[in-house]
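Query structure, 212 tokens:
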């Protein structure tokens, strides 16, 4: 069974200033990634998992409109159905099942209704099991070959405040975008989160502020 995604409709319905901000973010990510030969971008937050999925979904679509091929991977175990709101996905093999059974992460890739935009979804899994997978299955080694087939691989990370071993997530990417919920964000926590990117030699694209 497939669910109708809304990425195009949602992008078209956004307020002009929000659309401009997302477009400028997409252009910045693209320009810096091409200049510095970056292949993976992590979308992360301290307290805004919904905004993180929304930003990553919209920007992945905008990048396809800039004639780039994009793979979007959901690593947020607290939002396993998060991509279903924006994209049509099948109920084929998902992330954890594929990593556990195969050496090829490509077997989990699902096409969406948009040309040049494909996704990998995550199933409903408990955090200890997910951490065990991160520690033992070498996801990075299985993810790296996919960069040969896409202009950019975008990763959606879990909310940092709710996930204890975030270093395992940081290790999967070369760069990161931090999403911040303006009304409830503790600036000090956001700053500490961004500072950690440097410890993992990650390029920071700065903050996308979610005003909702």
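Result returned for the query:
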């Amino acid at each position: 069974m497939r669910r109708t995604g809304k990425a195009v409709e949602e992008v078209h319905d956004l307020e002009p200033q929000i659309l401009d901000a997302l477009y400028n973010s997409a252009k910045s990510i693209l320009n810096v990634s091409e200049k510095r030969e970056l292949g993976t971008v992590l979308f992360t937050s301290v307290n805004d998992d919904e905004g993180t999925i929304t930003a990553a979904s919209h920007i992945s679509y905008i990048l396809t409109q800039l004639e780039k091929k994009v793979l979007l991977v959901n690593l947020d175990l607290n939002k396993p159905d998060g991509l279903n709101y924006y994209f049509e996905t099948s109920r084929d093999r998902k992330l954890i099942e594929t990593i556990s059974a195969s050496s090829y992460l490509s077997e989990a890739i699902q096409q969406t209704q948009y040309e040049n935009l494909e996704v990998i979804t995550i199933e409903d899994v408990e955090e200890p099991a997910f951490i065990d997978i991160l520690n033992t299955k070498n996801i990075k080694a299985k993810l790296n070959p996919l960069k040969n087939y896409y202009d950019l691989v975008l990763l959606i990370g879990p909310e940092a405040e709710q996930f204890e071993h975030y270093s395992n997530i940081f290790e999967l990417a070369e760069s990161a975008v931090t999403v911040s919920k303006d009304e409830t964000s503790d600036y000090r926590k956001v700053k500490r989160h961004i500072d950690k990117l440097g410890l993992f030699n990650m390029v920071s694209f700065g903050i996308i502020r979610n005003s909702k």
